[in-house]
Amino acid sequence: MTTRKEVAVLPLNGTVKVEDGPERMLVRLDRPQVRNAIDAAMVADLHAVCAELERRPRILVLTGSDGIFAAGADIRELRERRREDALAGINSGLFDRIARLPMPTIAAVDGPALGGGAELAYACDFRLATPRARFGNPEAGLGIMAAAGACWRLRELVGEPLAKEILLAGRVFPAEEALAVRLVNELVPQDELPAAADRLAARIAKNAPLALRLTKLALAAPPGAHPRFDDVAQAVLFETEEKHERMTAFLERRR
Length: 255
Prior knowledge:
Helix content is 45%, strand content 15%. It is α/β, with parallel strands linked by helices. Helix 1 links the parallel strand 3 and strand 4 (59-63). Helix 1 runs parallel beside helix 4 (90-99), helix 6 crosses helix 7 (160-168) and helix 10 runs antiparallel to helix 11. The chain is globular. The two termini are 19 Å apart.
């Protein structure tokens, strides 16, 4: 397991706990008194995390606390938001920033991931879950829509029929069903979730960082960008010393 240390340099509001390491950053949502509801302070804290990961790219592991990933946006704040707030994309802008982080991201989900909490998990590249994890978007029942990514990310992740069940009929997916439709990459016991996230992060970290970054960009590129984007990205990688060293090590059968 990679040694981590708590980060004190980020300008945080106390809604998340951060532990950092050379290859990955662990961010724990920490508003257990309100089921880790995502409020303006948490949005600001997660933007600070993104700024740090953009400055020095590494893997992000995002998790909850006390058996809750995030039970949605803070309804008390949400009730007071108006047209200008929606157009500002408060949550959608944050989740899009997380999705666009240079290195892969992992959501380690224990307990409910609902509303904005589900959309936060959808924005990550990987989702690990425990058997008590649940995913759902009940926004329409509150008179609004899931406007922070679910209406298009969820369709891409599980297909339009299942996305409509969740978004229009309010279906909540238990962990086993989420795994069956590949919304979740792996299901692990509750006490093994941190170790599973560490294992996945370690597996990712074995790869060349620049190759990971360019592959992630290629995956996010529109269809019309291929194959030219891939050709240019590969051209960049072909010129790196790391490519030469890794291939030489492979040919010489050394680690």
